[in-house]
């Protein structure tokens, strides 16, 4: 039985329909699509996969040729230094550092690099463990599910025995059976797989009796970064003048900027993605204020005539979501190994899964899936003994 706190399945995979276009308010890309298990699942279920480079991989730069070249040089230089520092930590005994140690002092694009970290991690590079970042496996194949990643995951799980709107409050593991206290009553079980986000474990939103302080400490070192997604309906003029799936970054001199994908799947919809502290402010301000912010940044790029008349459709701030309290996990400096601590089973009765427990695919839906398979196999093996 699956106990689901929300009134839907899928968690941070969440697609809504708008006029026949799937809008992913949560995860949207089959990262490492060529090795991603969801790719095969999507094909078996008849979902169309868009096997092409994502729009943000071919950024439509609007800063001018000279500035564009300087931005590319800053990004390439940062990653070269980062990989060199990471190699010394993965294959030597150098201590972990924040990824910001790879910054070039005084580089005027360091704030832009922090904006990019906001999209990747939900936090600035100064908050992110170098060792954890280096362990992530990426084939650089980032594909999409046309109907929506969230819809794929929902379809995959729709026939499972699920109790929706069932918040688990306490897990008691001091008796012969596990006693799982929920808002709808108590369930006895032999085994349990816990998949709630690290933020909720760290906050003791799910209580264990006896307590599991090591789990809470590890979860606290694997926070979920802040991200907010907003979708806007574009006016006809903008649709007529902009090519399909044009992508732009709002600014190159500030970490507080949005990522904008215009004409999603050739439609009249713009997808806006806000990172880190900006995501929190956008979330607090509400959808209308968020749309104004986006139009202001787009107006600076395309001119006010082209950027007027955008209408908000939907927004989801994951930090305010009570069942996630953030977007996706990163490890803080010095704490990369806490993913293994979080994943370790308790008494061969309580198992842990979710993207935060994945060593090589954290922050992704396929990392969550793979960790769930590992936990389920271990659970079944224990039941057979």
TrEMBL record:
List the Gene Ontology MF annotations in alphabetical order: tryptophan 2-monooxygenase activity
What are the residue boundaries of the Amine oxidase domain, all occurrences included?
A: 2-380
- Please name one Pfam family that this protein belongs to: Amino_oxidase
User: Which portions of this protein are annotated as coiled-coil regions?
Assistant: none
Q: Does the keyword Ribosomal protein apply?
A: no
Question: What does the record list as GO biological process?
Answer: auxin biosynthetic process
Classify the source by domain of life: Bacteria
Protein keywords: Auxin biosynthesis
Q: Which reaction does it catalyse?
A: L-tryptophan + O2 = indole-3-acetamide + CO2 + H2O
Task: Quote the PANTHER family the UniProt record gives.
Answer: FLAVIN MONOAMINE OXIDASE, LYSINE-SPECIFIC HISTONE DEMETHYLASE 2
Q: What is this protein called?
A: Tryptophan 2-monooxygenase
Q: Which organism is it from?
A: Roseiterribacter gracilis
